[in-house]
Structures are given as C-alpha cells and as structure tokens.
Amino acid sequence: MFLALLTSGLWNASAPVGLAQVVAVEDSASRVEAVDVTIVNPSADTALNARIIDLIRRELRAFPDGTFSRAAAELALARVRRTSPVTETTIDVTPGATGGVIVTIGAILSDARAAATERGYMLTGDRSDLPVLYDRNGTYIVGKLELLSMAYANNNAWYGRPDLFLNGNPLVSGDPAGAGTDAWVEGFIHAGIYGITPLGGSAQLYGGLSGILSGSTGTELFTDATRLHFGIEDAYIGIVGGDTSAEGNRLVWNLTAGRKRFAIGEGFLIANSASNGQDRAALQSNPRWAADMLVLGQVRYNDTLVEAFYLDPDELPVVDSRTKIAGLNAETRLEGGWQLGATYLSVLESDFGYFATTPPDPATATLGRDGLEVFDLRFRWQPEQSGLFVVGEAALQRNDRFDMKATGIMGEVGYSFADAKWQPTVSYRLARFSGDDPATARFERWDPLLSGGNGEQWVQGINHFKVFQDSNLIAHRLQFRLRPSPKIELVPQLWVFKADSTTNLGGNPALSFLGGADLATEVNLTAKWFVSKNTMLQGHVAATFPSSDLNAASGVTGDIDPWVSAMVFLRVAF
C-alpha cells in the first residue's frame, strides 16, 4: 500500500518541488554583524555626541528582529529625529566578513533642536526629499521602489533529463528546460509605502503596504510560457513601544499582524515564508517573501529577545499544503562574542504528506506534517569581526500521532583574515538531515519545513538543490569570501553531497530509491558588485556533476549529464 502511494501523487503532498531561492537584495533579512554610528558634524560637547550615538543604537532595536530591515530602521531613525538634535540620517549597508551585513548610520546635528523642519515630498513637493513622503510631528511615511532584471541560462538542466526529474510535477507546463542550452529572462517591480506615527506615551503605530509586478519569458526550469503577475506583498499593521531605565536598560515590545516576512536565525527552520514561480513568475529572483498571515509578539530586554508567532506561509496554490505553524523563539547575546538561540514550533494543521516503505506506529496513523513538533538549539561564537568563528545548530522533530524521530544538525568553523589582501574568509560546514530507515516502523526523515534563504544559507547547491532539498542529505561545503575592492565580493563554493539513506521516498520521485550514498559534487562562483547605495549587480556560474549512484537510482534510466548554469541580475532600489 505504501509503495503504491509513490506513483499516485507524490508531487502534490510531499517534499518541495525544486523551488530555488537566490539572494535578490543585499540588506533584507540579513544577519547584522555590526552597527557603526557616525556623527557627520559632531558637537563640541562630547557627552552630547555620546548620548546621541547611544540613542541611535537603542532606537535601532525598537523593532526587535534578529535580522536587518531597512524599512524598520528608517522608521526607528524617524523617532531619533523627533526626539533629539539630529535633523538628518543616512543608512549604508555593506556586506560583512561572514555573510551578514554591516550597517553604518550617519547623523547630522542641528545647531538647536528647534532647527528641525518638516520634510517629505507630500509636504514640500521637492523631489530631493524622496523616498521620504511625509515627516512632520513624529509621523513618518517613506516610499519603497525596487526593480530587478535577471537573465538565467542552463546547460543540461535537470541533468539533461527533465523527462525523469519533472515527471508528474504539477508546476510543469509546455516545454521546460532540459538537454542542451536554454535561457530565459525575468524581473519584478516592488513598490510600497511604510509609516509610523505616535499614539501616546512610548507607543507608536506602524504599518506597510506594497505590491509586486513580476514577469518571465523564455524557457525556464518548469515552463516556456510567458507570464505576468501582480500581487500584494506586504500588508501589515503593528504597535511598538518601550522604555529605557535610568540605568540604561532597554525594554521594547512589539505586536504585528498581517502579510509580512518572517525568518528564524539563518533560515535553518524558517526562511521562505512565501513561494515564487509558476503563475507568479520570477522563479529565481524570488521577489515574494511575505507570509499570507503572520501574527507576531516580541519582547526584548537589552540583548535578549523572546517572541511568539503564528505563521501561514504564502504557498503556490497548485501545491498549497495548507500548513499553519505556531511557535516560540528566544535569542540572546552574551559577552565574549556568544549568540544563543532556541526555538519550539508546532504544526497546527497541514496536508503535507510523508511516505515510507513500512507502516507507521501505530499502523492506523496517517504519515504527514500535521502535528509535527520541532525543538531547536543554536549558537554562534565570533568574538571579533576578524578571526575565528564557530556556528552550530541542532534540531529534533517528533509527532504525537505516530512514532517519529528526525534530526537536523550542522556545524561550521571558519576564519576571517580582515587585515589581509582581499580580506579572505574561509569556512567549512557539515550539515546532516536524517533520512528514513526502512527497517523500522519509526519515521526518521527530516522535514525541511520552510528552510531556505539563499545559496549562502540553506539553499545547498545552486543546481543540485533543485533536485535534492534539505532532507535525507549530508552536505559538505567549503566556502571562501573574497573582497578584491570595497564594492566587489566573490564567493566560491565547493559542495559534496551524500544521502543519509538510500531510501528517499518523499523526495524527487525519480530518486525514491538510490543506487548508493554518493549524490553529486558542485562547484560555483557568485560575484557581487555594489555599484552604489541604490544599485547592485550580481551573477553566478555553477557546475554540478552527478554521481554514478545517482545515475543508478530506481527511477533513472539512461545517462544523466553534468548541469551547468549561469545567471546575472541588476537590482536598483530606492
């Protein structure tokens, strides 16, 4: 009975269907490595300068997220301008040595607080005020405009055998990429407005509304159809407030609800709270991240964050698993460069199915994500921006409805040579996501949930990830990060992929039973050019070489070939 499930709709209710995520912005939802504050015209009163710098740092934590958000930072700095001699602020975001971002805030002081004036295009009609639309009496409204254009090409996509690796995939229509060379272009326009206004006391009301127009044409991974799609992206409202004690301790609280992006840590469990591609187009540029519904409550005391969340991801309708997740997350920073985190989450409901060769325990249970519980612990030790760093994360999955014990674990060690030429950072990462043992009634296959992000997070392999996601996988990664100039970054990677179990039910149907543990080897290079504050050019080349064990999988007939891809995109944002 269980083997029969393999050929009767695995694509509709099992693992993700090869949706890759590549980084499309340099500063959205990125881990903050450091925050630098500079007063452009410092006062002769050094104590005043110190108080202003401290105020800026505290207000930047007013939206207590573990990652950087430009919109949230702009709103926080509006509070600074309202309550201090600061009349103008700037935000500059540059890549950090270990994959995060360094945020530099520039502040300009007035001669007196009364010198601060209203501004914004809606008030002054001055285009130089853009993207600020309104800034008066503590009410601040800012616009957002992001444009991206991408060209993508593959040689032997799906290892030259889309007939095998896309057989039965509900995303397929027309003639997808495959043997030989295929290419397509895609892009999007993301526009919106975000604002904040005082409510009384320390409380402030904030919100955001945006939409995305996306399109694709050419022969991409699932189709050769030309598509154009518009949809609402952000649509949320929230209340934020807090207080600072006489001793300098900062308490901040935040409540928000609506369509909004959400991620935990580096994306090991949750990163992709929305899906792209199919009718939405823009498969690889990934403009959509906002969940259908996020309800989030957060409290931060100094460097400790506790948050509770409810998440309904915005999945593609054709493969919507109707997954709903609730959970708790806690993070803290300690002296000595330690960052610690812990997460508990529960899947309240889901139609996402699991598959196995043996009946579950109990035999009357239905294998699936519904009822899944996840316990996660993680740490990062990085005492200085330059030097040694160590990262680790481990998680356990179980389900009350049947016997399940799945594990995900990763460890990374690296070294940043910040004072050397090209400022190289080298790191090695080992990640293991358990597979199912067919000899037991216990289900052991790891559920990747909403893991992902980009190719430097948990999209493991630019090409190979499209065939084999983060489940039943052992991945070795050697990564370098090089800075030939302040505006150019190069990220070469070497990947070696192995399977944890040769039974791979729930993955790509062609690979349900593997010929051995070896899967593939991939080498890739990503180059980023930060042309200006508003403009970024990024590209990659990747080559993936399938193993003989992959070629010997149960659903693979004939030969499969190495897969080579190349991509370039230009992003402009205001």
Describe the model.
This protein is mainly beta and 574 residues long. Helix content is 9%, strand content 45%. The protein is built from seven helices and 23 strands. It has helices at residues 2-6, 10-13, 46-59, 70-83, 121-124, 162-165, 548-551; strands at residues 30-39, 67-68, 86-95, 101-109, 132-136, 139-155, 181-200, 203-218, 227-244, 250-259, 293-301, 304-312, 324-334, 338-349, 372-381, 387-399, 406-416, 425-433, 473-485, 488-499, 518-529, 535-546, 563-573. The strands form two sheets. The chain has an 18-stranded antiparallel beta barrel. A four-stranded mixed sheet has the order 2-1-4-3. Strand 15 (372-381) and strand 16 form a beta hairpin. Helix 3 (46-59) runs antiparallel to helix 4 (70-83). It is globular.
Brief summary of the model shown:
With 574 residues, this protein is mostly beta strands. It has seven helices and 23 strands.
Order of helices and strands, N to C? HHEHEHEEHEEHEEEEEEEEEEEEEEEEHE
Could you tell me the strand content as a percent range? Answer: over 45%
Alpha-beta classification = mainly beta
* Uncertain stretches of 5 or more adjacent residues: 1-26, 112-116
Mean pLDDT: 89
Outline type: globular
Rounded radius of gyration (Å): 24 Å
Q: Could you tell me the number of beta strands?
A: 23
Helix content: under 10%
How many DSSP H or I helices?
A: 7
First-last Cα distance: 56 Å
Describe the sheet with the most strands. Answer: 18 strands, antiparallel, barrel
